[in-house]
C-alpha cells in the first residue's frame, strides 16, 4: 500500500488556516447544559456470568443526550480496594461496546476501564434522531446533516462527555485521573471530549483519529466513512455544499483541538486510506496542550496494531498516570 497523502516532511509543517464557526463555543455550552439539565440515574450492575475470574464487570447505564440512557461496560481488576485511574474508551465507526472480553488489556494493566457504547451503532443504545432525519447515504455521516442542531454527532459527542460526568457515581474509578481514549471515530470523540470537558480530563489518547479536517477529508478520501458525505454532496452539491460543510465545522477535531489542554498522545499511519495523515496532523498541530504524535510509517488504518497499547501505557506512566498495581 502506498502513501495516501503528503510525505512526512510536508506533514510536519502542514498548518492550514482554519477558523471555527461563529458561535462554536456557545453551541456546545448550550448543548451540554441541556443534557445535564435533563440528567437521569447512573446504574452499575455487577455481572456474575462472564467467567472472567480476574476482573469485575459492571453493566452501566448513564444519562446522555437529553437524559437518554447510554450503555457502557465498567471493567475493574478483581478485588479493587481503592479508586483507580480510569481509561474511558470510545468506539470506532459502526461499532458498539460489544462484549466485555474484548476490552481486557487496560484492567489487566491495573486501570479501571469504562467502555462507552455508540448510540445507534452499537446494540444497546438506540438513536432516536432529530430534525428532518436526513440520512441520504449508508451509515451515520449524513444523519441530520441539514443543520448542526440536528446532526448525529451532536448527540454522540454529548453522550461521550456525559460519560465523564458519570464517573463519580461508579465504583473503583478516580474521576481526577480520567484518561479519554479511542481509535478512528473513538479518537475523534476523545479529542472532542478533551476540549469540551477540560477540567475532567487528565490525559488524551487519540489513535488515528477520524472526524478531523472535514473540508479536506471529504475531498481526498476514497475509503471508510468520509465518502458517505461525498456521495451525498454528489447529488446535492449545488444547493447544499456550503450548508453541509458549515454543519460539519461544528464537529471538527481541528476546532476542538485548540480548546483542549490535557497532555495528549496522538498517532497516525502514513498509509492510512481512511483517515488521511494530513487531517490528523492538522488537528495535532492545533492542539492546545502538550502533545506528542507516534508516526507509523508503513501503517494503514490499523496504526501500530498491537504495539499501540504498549506505547500508550509507557506514555501514561511518564505522565504519572500509571496505577499503583501496575
UniProtKB/TrEMBL annotation:
Q: Where is the Acetyl xylan esterase domain?
A: 1-317
Q: Which Gene3D superfamilies does its entry note?
A: alpha/beta hydrolase
Q: Name one Pfam family in it.
A: AXE1
The organism's superkingdom is given as Bacteria
Gene from which the chain derives? axeA
The protein's name: Cephalosporin-C deacetylase
Q: Where exactly are the transmembrane stretches of this chain?
A: none
